[in-house]
Amino acid sequence: MARWIFLLFAASFSIGALAQAYPAKPVKIIVPAQPGGGLDLVGRTVADQLGRSLGQSVVVENLSGGGGIIATQTVARAAPDGYTLMVGYVATHGTNPAVRKVPYDAVRDFTPITMIGGTRNILVVHPSLLVADLKGFVDYVKKNAATLTYASGGMGTLNHLAMEQLKGDAGFDIPVAHYRGIGPAINDLRGGQTQMMMPGLAAALPHIRNGRMRPLAVTGLARHPLLPEVPTFEESGFKGYDAVQWYGIVGPARLPAEITRRLHAEISKALATPALQQRLASEAIDPMPMSPEQFGKFIQAEIARWGALARERKILLDD
């Protein structure tokens, strides 16, 4: 009995000592995308602020490929010591596990640390469509479905699923043109090859401001301050449209609780500063504060939500 008590004490002491000494070397944040864009911005912004608060170097490693699978597998297999973290986001920990078989478990293989924030989705149309609001849009699409196409940034992406949600709720059916990324999809919408899509607000905003896209409705429970004239889907008669392109920080499973709490506390303090909020706002990212436990439940709810929609709309990609 005395031996077991000693071992238990020793284990508790070693975990506490690890957390107290952490970090004793540079911390790495893996971004599952190439440099540039919202994912990279989040990773580098968090790395910069976290490095200052921890008094240790925090470096970013861009690891793209496989729709985030290479990065997620790398982090899932890393030692749970707090030195390998990742920007987990709606694709890696939401839509991908919901619509396709992935070689990782988005819940069991990771430790949720903190939510950063999210970018709303917005329904936009080519200016040639003579519609001014969501009701007029639905009426127009039902009458002209044979001549219309909507664009997506890829099968199973959030902008694809959000548009499929609208198709089901509004009762219209038009084909989708899938592109390899949101950039090419936006280019063809601007050129008139497709007529509508539901991208993230950050990606759409420049094109809305220069008149190349007309916004009709935005996700969320309140109008967005950057586009106060655009109503929400709920205002327009469609409930359940609160999807966002969200970003958070996760680590490997079994990350010590003391390290998880410290990382969460330091990142949360940084997120509360006006400077960091302003930087995220430049990408239309709204803060979404959550505890690690709340973030974990949020991830599970996202997978369940998009999985149900994917089954309903028959867009399970590995069937």
Number of strands: 11
Class by helix and strand content? alpha/beta
What Rg, in angstroms, do the CA atoms define?
Answer: 21 Å
In whole angstroms, how far apart are the ends?
54 Å
Shape: globular
Q: What percent strand?
A: 15-25%
Relative helix content: 40-55%
Give the integer mean of the pLDDT values: 92
Segments where pLDDT lies below 50 for 5+ residues? 5-15
Descriptive notes:
This protein is of the alpha/beta class and 319 residues long. It has two domains: 24-117 and 246-313, D-Maltodextrin-Binding Protein, domain 2 (3-Layer(aba) Sandwich); 122-218, Periplasmic binding protein-like II (D-Maltodextrin-Binding Protein, domain 2, 3-Layer(aba) Sandwich), CATH 3.40.190. The chain has eleven helices and eleven strands. It has helices at 2-21, 37-54, 69-76, 91-99, 134-144, 158-170, 182-191, 201-209, 257-271, 274-281, 292-313, and strands at residues 27-31, 58-62, 84-89, 110-120, 122-125, 150-152, 176-178, 196-197, 214-218, 244-252, 286-287. Strands 2-1-3-10-4-11 form a six-stranded mixed beta sheet, with helices on both faces. Helix 2 crosses helix 9 (257-271). The protein is globular, with a radius of gyration of 21 Å. The relative contact order is 0.18. The model is unreliable at 5-15 (pLDDT under 50).
Summarize this, please?
With 319 residues, the protein is an alpha/beta fold. The protein is built from eleven helices and eleven strands. It has a six-stranded mixed β-sheet, with helices on both faces. A three-stranded antiparallel β-sheet has the order 8-5-9.
